[in-house]
């Protein structure tokens, strides 16, 4: 196992930011770490990276406890913190050489050049970090997280604040890197998880809510439930519409358009209803539940 988290608790004074969280991540997995604001994602990532001690429980990275925060442990992990703190007055090259020095890497120049190549920083390497765009700063953050060739990469919201092109570039980079490393990535973007990750872990209020292969997540909470959108040519009798077998909550979303929640696919019943009522159906679609709605459904009050 690359990462083993056993019964981890983190207390900040009276507040329990993590409450008995356990999971493990195998070597080579790319895992998305989701949860609403304040769920405990960053706290968990700092603990795994050995930068914050847990109040209780155990964490191991590549078989080494995070309490042994020694050189061997640090070499195993690359960490990109939330907000990517960087020395803005330093030049890209200078900064990466300093990071290589901190890891006591041999042939520092070669490592820096390799990172510049990997992260596409060639044209920016002689600039001060402070003048770089957010996307390029994020690449510098990734380069510092990767320069020592760690087995495990912990990325705390790596695409937050980036424009759509930069998001795609960083995602591709993470995907490339993820072919060889274990990656744990926190994000608020559901599509990111679908695009990059093989598995999703959701925290809510410090508790592990879901640990599931991400591609299956949309089926998880939804069960057989689905939402059907139907648009008629005129007003249906609402009581009759409600009488469709299996229909749950009905919402009028536009003119004669209705969203009907149901425990099954009720499109055929809606069609039969329209025929029986002499209504013409202009639109009839079943709306797939995406990760976003599943996540919302799972974490709402
Ligand atoms: N150093 C600290 N001192 C006190 N409370 C803290 C500290 N760090 C985190 N917390 C609290 O722990 C809880 C979890 O915070 P954390 O930053 O881990 O959440 P998160 O899931 O990463 O949120 P976000 O998505 O907003 O980044 C929050 O209530 C936060 O205020």
TrEMBL record:
Q: Which UniProt keywords apply?
A: ATP-binding, Nucleotide-binding, Transport
Enumerate the GO terms in the molecular function aspect.
ATP binding
InterPro entries, from UniProt?
AAA+_ATPase (IPR003593), ABC_transporter-like_ATP-bd (IPR003439), P-loop_NTPase (IPR027417)
SUPFAM superfamilies per UniProt = P-loop containing nucleoside triphosphate hydrolases
Determine if ATP-binding is one of this entry's keywords.
Answer: yes
Q: Pfam families, alphabetically?
A: ABC_tran
Ranges for the ABC transporter domain?
3-230
Give the domain of life. Bacteria
Identify its protein family: Belongs to the ABC transporter superfamily.
State the protein's name: ATP-binding cassette domain-containing protein
Q: Write the lineage as a comma-separated list.
A: Bacteria, Pseudomonadati, Bacteroidota, Bacteroidia, Marinilabiliales
């Amino acid at each position: 196992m690359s990462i083993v988290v056993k019964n981890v608790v983190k207390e900040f004074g009276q507040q329990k930011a993590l409450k008995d969280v356990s999971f493990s991540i195998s070597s080579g997995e790319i895992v998305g770490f989701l949860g609403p604001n304040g769920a405990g994602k960053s706290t968990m990532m700092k603990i795994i990276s050995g930068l914050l001690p847990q109040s209780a429980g155990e964490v191991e990275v590549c078989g080494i406890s995070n309490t042994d925060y020694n050189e061997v442990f640090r070499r195993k992990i690359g960490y990109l913190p939330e907000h990517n703190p960087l020395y803005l007055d330093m030049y890209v090259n200078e900064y990466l050489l300093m990071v290589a020095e901190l890891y006591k890497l041999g042939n520092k120049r070669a490592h820096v050049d390799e990172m510049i190549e990997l992260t596409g920083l060639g044209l920016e390497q002689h600039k001060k970090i402070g003048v770089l765009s957010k996307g390029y700063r994020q690449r510098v953050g990734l380069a510092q997280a990767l320069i020592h060739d760690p087995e495990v990469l912990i990325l705390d919201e790596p695409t937050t604040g980036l424009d759509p092109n930069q998001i795609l570039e960083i995602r591709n980079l993470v995907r490339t890197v993820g072919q060889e490393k274990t990656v744990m990535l926190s994000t608020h973007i559901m599509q990111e998880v679908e695009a990059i990750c093989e598995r999703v872990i959701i925290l809510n209020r410090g508790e592990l809510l879901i640990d599931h292969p991400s591609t299956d997540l949309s089926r998880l909470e939804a069960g057989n439930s689905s939402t059907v959108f139907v648009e008629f040519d005129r007003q249906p009798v609402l009581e009759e519409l409600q009488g469709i077998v299996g229909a749950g909550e009905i919402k009028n979303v536009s003119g004669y358009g209705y969203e009907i929640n149901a425990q099954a696919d009720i499109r055929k019943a809606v069609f039969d209803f329209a025929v029986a009522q002499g209504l013409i159906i202009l639109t009839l679609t079943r709306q797939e539940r995406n990760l976003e709605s599943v996540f919302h459904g799972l974490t709402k009050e």
